């Protein structure tokens, strides 16, 4: 059994402990849950990932499931749904809490209240999303370089390319992008 304070620690803990089950949130510092899912599954190939989150945007739910999560449970549904989700996932099934089902069904063509989330996050590479998250969390270029084990110059190049790719000219623009696309929480 392991516990982690951020996405990077979660991956290291998964690698060290090889769990059958991982419960993660979308909002985690240093590496958010959406970006961590595929890495968690590479670190612990036999694990199943359950997302337990307050975020109920359809795009985020779909991204989590597409990234490899076996279940998505809203924190507001945790009491009635979490044990059921864990049981089903450990038996090899998928699970989404009832509120999540309603959100996804509302997003189908022709349905009311078409929710959107996740913005244009798909245009960034995995590494670029990491850099955006770390910069938005207040890390300097040097700290980003240390966290990602790259040179400071490479971190600076990533930041410059991100600014151009996203059409933002400042750190505050990168932060707004990260919040809008749920890379970090406000």
Please trace the helix and strand order, writing H or E for each element. HEHEHEHEHHHHH
The appropriate CATH architecture of the largest domain is 3-Layer(aba) Sandwich
Provide the structure class. Answer: alpha/beta
Strand order, biggest sheet? 1-2-3-4
Q: What would the CATH topology of the largest domain be?
A: Rossmann fold
CATH superfamily of the largest domain: Response regulator
Mean pLDDT: 82
Name of the top-level CATH class of the largest domain: Alpha Beta
Characterize the main sheet.
Answer: 4 strands, parallel
Question: What is the gyration radius calculated from CA atoms?
Answer: 17 Å
Terminal-residue CA separation: 30 Å
Strand content: 5-15%
**How many runs of DSSP E, i.e. beta strands?**
4
Total number of domains: 2
Helix content range of the residues, please? 40-55%
Describe the structure in your own words.
The chain is α/β, with parallel strands linked by helices and 186 residues long. The chain folds into two domains: 7-106, Rossmann fold; 121-180, Winged helix-like DNA-binding domain superfamily/Winged helix DNA-binding domain (Arc Repressor Mutant, subunit A, Orthogonal Bundle). Helix content is 53%, strand content 9%. The chain has helices at 7-17, 33-43, 58-67, 78-90, 98-106, 126-136, 141-148, 152-166, 171-180; strands at 21-24, 48-53, 71-74, 95-96. Strands 1-2-3-4 form a four-stranded parallel sheet. Helix 4 links the parallel strand 3 (71-74) and strand 4 (95-96). Helix 1 runs parallel beside helix 2, helix 6 (126-136) packs across helix 8 and helix 7 (141-148) packs across helix 8. The radius of gyration is 17 Å and the shape is globular. The model is unreliable at 108-120 (pLDDT under 50).
């Amino acid at each position: 059994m392991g516990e982690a304070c951020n996405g990077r620690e979660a991956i290291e803990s998964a690698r060290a402990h090889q769990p059958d089950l991982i419960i993660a949130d979308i909002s985690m510092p240093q590496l958010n849950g959406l970006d961590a899912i595929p890495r968690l599954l590479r670190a612990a190939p036999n694990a199943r990932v359950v997302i337990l989150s307050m975020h109920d945007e359809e795009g985020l739910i779909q991204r989590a499931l597409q990234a490899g999560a076996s279940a998505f449970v809203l924190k507001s549904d945790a009491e009635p749904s979490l044990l059921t989700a864990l049981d089903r996932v450990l038996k090899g099934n998928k699970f989404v809490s009832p509120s999540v089902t309603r959100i996804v069904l509302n997003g189908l063509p022709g349905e009311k209240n078409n929710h959107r989330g996740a913005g244009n996050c798909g245009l960034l590479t995995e590494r670029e999303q990491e850099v955006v998250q770390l910069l938005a969390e207040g890390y300097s270029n040097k700290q980003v370089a240390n966290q990602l084990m790259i040179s400071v110059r490479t971190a600076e190049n990533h930041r410059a390319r991100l600014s151009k790719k996203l059409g933002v000219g400042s750190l505050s623009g990168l932060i707004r992008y990260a919040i809008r696309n749920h890379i970090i929480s406000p």
